[in-house]
Amino acid sequence: QVQLVESGGGLVQPGGSLRLSCVASGNIFSFKTMAWYRQAPGKQRELVATITWGESITKYEDSVKGRFTISKDNVKNTLYLQMDSLKPEDTAVYYCNGVSTFYKWGQGTQVTVSS
Questions:
Q1: CB 3.0-4.6 Å disulfide test: which of 22, 45, 54, 108 passes with 79?
Q2: DSSP assignment letter at 89
Q3: What are the angstrom distances between the C-alpha of 83 and each of 8, 36, 40, 51, 71?
Q4: Closest-CA residue to 95 (of 42, 35, 40, 43)
Q5: Is 46 helix (H, G, I), strand (E, B) or coil?
Q6: pLDDT by residue (tens digit) across 6-63?
Q7: What is the pLDDT of residues 86-114, one digit of tens each?
């Protein structure tokens, strides 16, 4: 069974940057596309960015386009999210997971953007 562990969150001022990591362990052979999600207080979890495992084709939500970059390391089974020009609206718990087929959600990592 796949386990997902997110890390790298923290408190940052508006305009700052953070790099999130997601380490996947277990049987990940079924992964075709991985994604970053986020959930802000009082809101539903939303899709932030996706990347295909084989071709590294990326896609972003409009709200983060041009500011966030999703990437991966196939050897390390690690997914990354580079977040630049952070805004208070980016404040949320960030999670990684598959697309369409979901594994057990990890604990997520808290990102707080505040002055």
A1: 22
A2: G
A3: 11, 12, 16, 15, 11
A4: 35
A5: strand
A6: 999 999 999 999 999 999 998 766 668 999 999 999 999 999 999 998 889 999 999 9
A7: 999 999 999 999 998 889 999 999 999 99
